[in-house]
Amino acid sequence: MSAIDWYAHKSLGDGLFWIQERFYQSENRANIWLLRGSHQDVVIDTGLGLRSLPDYIDAKGLLGKDPERKNPLLAIATHAHFDHSGGLHQFQQVGVHSAEVDALANGDNFETVTWLSDREIAEAPSPGWRARHYKVKAVQPTHILQEGDVINLGDRQLTVLHMPGHSRGSICLHDRDNKLLFSGDVVYDGAMIDWLPYSRVSDYISSCERLVGLVDSEQVDQVLPGHYNAFGAKRLHRLASTYISRAGTCSAKVSTLAWSSLARLALRASNPRSAC
């Protein structure tokens, strides 16, 4: 299967594109966001990497034909989990938070929580392909990101907000001028997952308090999340506030502990050679 067949995209205007992997039919299917700037373009999260995302972007002409544009496309992972980082190795420039550099550089499929089944792939990307052979390929990040870093696209700036909890290196990218928040898996319109390896509930609560603060200070109008559909500031406030109120309850703590134990056992069994 070609890259053109594997992916699909939709233009959201103002140089923003939403890309998805058509045949990865799972709740784990991540949104891929492509944002064009006057001097630098970025792709935010890269999916599984089963087909070449750069080839698709080029074939569809999503970056235009500006002869003066010299900077290679920068791929940024909102965090290292496999559904967001699997395609990073396809890019010359790769950015991730410093806390997860080693996981990507070492191809640590435990920390990237690599978990893929044949039933999630509606059509095999190549003859004989099987999910059990899938691994996140090691990649050495060229851009090691920290809280407060600004990614200058020319006519746009994205500020890195370190928001751990879902993973230790989870980030949001905030376009302050346009009040857009690329939130990765820090928050999306669904159940927030805090029971994976390197998840931490106390960090997640703090990150959600920051999200509430962004809404209260009117710094976010629209959220472009790692999964499902975009949503607005009121929904962001409700999702973050709900997590804060529920995370400290006894039932939530018991559930998180149980799911965390199961997740670690399953990931160690499927990725026995990864660091634990």
From TrEMBL:
Domain Metallo-beta-lactamase as annotated: residue spans: 29-227
Signal peptide from the UniProt entry: none
Pfam families: Lactamase_B (PF00753)
InterPro entries assigned: Metallo-B-lactamas, NDM-1-like, RibonucZ/Hydroxyglut_hydro
SUPFAM superfamilies according to UniProt: Metallo-hydrolase/oxidoreductase
Protein name (record): Acyl-coenzyme A thioesterase MBLAC2
Organism phylogeny: Eukaryota, Metazoa, Chordata, Craniata, Vertebrata
